[in-house]
Structures are given as C-alpha cells and as structure tokens.
Amino acid sequence: MSNERQRNVLINLLILSCLLFSFNPIAGQSIGGNAVFNFVTLSPSAKTTALGGLNISHLNADLGMAIHQPAFLNKEMNGQLHLSVKPYLASINQYNFNGAHFINKANTTIGWGVQYMDYGTIPMTDIAGNELGSFRPNEYALHLSAATTYQKNFKIGASLKFLQSKYGIYHSNGIAADLGIVYAPYNGLTQWAILVNNVGVQLTKFNKKENLPFNITAGVSKKLANAPFQFSLTAQRLTVWDNTYNDPLYNALEGFKSPSKYQNLFNHLIVASEINLGPSVNIDLGYNFLRRFDLNIQNQKNSLNGFSAGCNFLVNNVQMQYANAFFQNNLNHHFTIIYQLKKRY
Q: How many CA atoms lie within 13 A of 110 on its CB side?
C-alpha cells in the first residue's frame, strides 16, 4: 500500500468517525456536559501532563501514555512496569499502575493496568449538619489492552475497561472501550493518530442513568530531521463544536467581554513540544487552550493557566519523569517511574 493511499485511509477514517458520532451518537455516551466516571479522562502519566494533558500521536510515547492511547503499545514496552502518582489538594491522590507483555507469535502487545482515585476521608453528616461518622470515597478503572501493526505503517490498539465509583452508600459501575489508530510514514519523522474514547454503558447507576465521557481525538506530531525538537497538535472533543461557556447576560452585568468567534476553534486544541537534550534527558512543554479559558478570571491576573512542563531522565533500566500543570497560583505535580523488568525484543 502506497504512502498516499495509507494517508487517505487514515483521513477517511477520521472523517467517517466524526460524522458517525456527530449525527448518531451511541446511547450511553456523553458528548457535552456532565458525565459519570470522568476520572478516566485525567492525565495518566507525568509525560502526558507535561504535554498539555492529552497527546495521542507522540513519536516517543511511553507505557504511561499507552493508558489513554492503546495504539502506542509496542514490543519495545515488553516487560515494562509503569507507576504514576499525582497528588491533589485536600488529601486527594491519583494512582496509575500498568504493564505490558509482547507476544511474539501473534505480533501483539498486551497491556494491563489500574487507575485509582483516593478522595481521602470525608465527614458524613445529616441534613442539619450533625456528624454521623466518616466515609472514604474512591474510584477505579481496570483495563486490558492489545495493539498490533498493520501494513507496517499502521498501529491499531484497543482497550476494554471496567469502571467503578463509590461514594459511601452510593456506588456505580460500567464498562467502556477505547480504539486508537496511529499512522507513521516511512520517514519516521511524522505520526498521525485518531482515538475514540469511552464507548460504553453504565451498568449500575447512582440515582439515574448517566452518560460516559465519550470523546473523539485526532493528533499529529512532527520531529525535525536536523534539530532535537518535536511538535504536536492535538484536537479533542471533535463531536462537539461549542466547548465555550458563555452567559451574555452575566457578562453584560459584570462588564465582561464575550468570547471571540474563534474561541470555540482554539478550545479544541492542545499544542506541545519536546526538546531532546541527549539520549537520556528531554524536556516537555504543553499549552491547553480549553484549560486556559475555563480557569481564567476576567479582569484579574491569571498566571500561567493552561501551561504545563516536565522533564524525563533515563538511568539504566529506570525512567523517571516529573511534570506540573498550572492552575491559577497552584501547581499540579505529577511523578512517574517506568521500570524495564525484562529485556526488549
């Protein structure tokens, strides 16, 4: 299959997916507004956090990034273990742990893992505010993934996830699936990708049936041939054009400016860059337009909202990553360790 034909196949798949889910969304998927199990949309690794919170096309993707994009799984990840910890405010913590194994006869890489959200201990009160004890809410996702190559230039991956949320006496669970496709031309300097996330259904509801955080994402990454730089552009929430919250009446009363006509376009985009300082060290940078828009307060200083940064070090068989993302005057730290347990193929 020629390069031009392969490129056309990927473009047609992207257009078909967007049209299909825009005009006939699958029941049980949320393409805007609130959704259940939203914790699965959080960045699973420090590198992903540094690159703006979502990146599905990165040329140097690692095992942690494969949690979101199963097509990243490859035989180089055989025997790797990944652990990420992201502390939030008020004793809230996120943990991601996963691994991979390459099956040579099937030319397939199998991935497995768990994402766990611990919300700490919260007082339990009655309607009058009297404390009756305490409870410890939590959420987790168990996932099993598989990825293989097709026609050398296409990598295809899929994940099946079991989701659980528990808040005291209330709990809910569900199942979801992800499907990712990555196209890499022969020159090895460009990578295109598409990802369909969280196609599934809520099995047990809290009070009423809720939708899953359905998302279609497309991305492209480009590495410069003669310079240590890589650039990425990611377009998220492709089935929903209007990502911008706007209340004209409130803006008029408070003297705020309404969003520009181009704001919806930019709110779909995430830009990122990687700088390679050597074979064992790199720096990652990202900018998330939607996060910037959501966090900014008009007529006030808004610091570095939307920006993120991180670094990666490789020491023997251990890869260490650190990243932070800016939220008003606070930093959201993220720590990751990837350990090579088995030899690579």
A: 8
